[in-house]
Amino acid sequence: MQVFNNTLSDCAANNSSNASGSRGAFGVGDGPSTLLMNLRNNVAEQNPGEIYVDGSLSQINGDHNLWFGIGAGPAQTTNT
Q1: What is the DSSP letter of 72?
Q2: What is the pLDDT of residues 56-69, one digit of tens each?
Q3: Considering 8, 18, 28, 79, which has the largest number of Cβ atoms within 10 A of its Cβ?
Q4: Could you tell me which of 9, 3, 2, 6 has the C-alpha nearest to residue 52?
Q5: pTM across the whole model
Q6: Beta bridge partner(s), residue 66
């Protein structure tokens, strides 16, 4: 799945994984292990207590994303 050119802000804290949906700005949820999410040219701004990505991190990769608010973005989303 290609996810590109989005702006996300304050995607709400959710302290229980997948309670009424995934948490974080991006997530693969309970998708099959063959589901791969490629994030490209996105901007995500999160508040303390929120996360950038949810789900199996091995299913999420990408490049040229900007991450703000809670520290460095996910390592698998390089900015080359």
Answers
A1: S
A2: 889 999 999 999 99
A3: 28
A4: 9
A5: 0.83
A6: 43
| DSSP per position, 2-71 | EEES-EEE-----SSTTTTS--SSEE-TT--TT--EEEES-EEE--TT--SEES-GGGEEEES-EEESSS
d(CA 25, CA 13): 10
| C-alpha span between 36 and 76 (Å, rounded) | 12
Give CA–CA dist 45/43, Å, rounded.
7
How buried is 40 (Cβ within 10 angstroms: 0-12 exposed, 13-18 middle, 19+ buried)?
A: middle
pLDDT tens, position by position, 24-52: 899 887 778 899 999 999 999 999 988 89
Closest to 36 in 3D by CA, of 24, 44, 26: 26
d(CA 31, CA 67): 24
